[in-house]
Amino acid sequence: MSLDNGDMAGIVGGSITLLGAIGGGVRWLLTSRSKREQWIEARIQQHVAKIEARLGVAERRADHLGFAFQLVAAELARLDPNSDILRRAQLIIEGVQGLFTPRELPPEHADALDELYERTK
After folding, report:
1. Phi and psi of 17, rounded to 5°?
2. Which of 25-39, 44-58, 74-88 has the highest mean pLDDT?
3. Per-residue confidence (pLDDT) for residue 58, from 0 to 100
4. What transmembrane ranges does the database entry give (predicted)?
5. Lowest CB count within 10 Å: 2, 45, 79, 95, which one?
6. Are 116 and 71 in contact (CB under 8 A)?
7. What span, in angstroms and rounded, lies between the C-alpha atoms of 110 and 116?
């Protein structure tokens, strides 16, 4: 069987068309995967942002509750400095605050506590 120039051109043309179709399919697969990965990454970032916001609220609440407890504890300590219940409550509050990142009281809270302790001496 002999191939003339027309047959060769047809084979080469068909091969190029086939390779082009395969290349287009591979390009579509890679693009599709990349878009899906971008969508997944965007969803993850949305969830992370929500979790971080909720954690921030929880940390502020823990700070405020701890400060409120310190105010009440200072008054109770003045009335009964050796109260076992007050000591236990302090340990619980410290444990709850320890669930979050340990940090100092905000300066205005620390100043208020210092002033309160000075008045109760």
Report:
1. -65, -45
2. 44-58
3. 85
4. 12-30
5. 2
6. yes
7. 10
Q: Is 108 helix (H, G, I), strand (E, B) or coil?
A: helix
What tokens were used for 14?
């068909």
pTM: 0.45
Cβ proximity of 116 and 74 under 8 Å? yes
Give the per-residue pLDDT at 101: 45
- Report whether pLDDT(102) > 80: no
Is the per-residue pLDDT at 114 higher than 70? no
Q: What is the mean pLDDT of residues 57-86?
A: 83
| CA distances (Å), origin 9, targets 1, 13, 44, 96 | 16, 6, 52, 79
DSSP 33-83: HHHHHHHHHHHHHHHHHHHHHHHHHHHHHHHHHHHHHHHHHHHHHHH-TT-
Contact 82, 102 (CB under 8 A): no
Question: Alpha-carbon distance 20 to 60, whole Å?
Answer: 60
Angstrom distance (rounded) from CA 30 to CA 51: 31
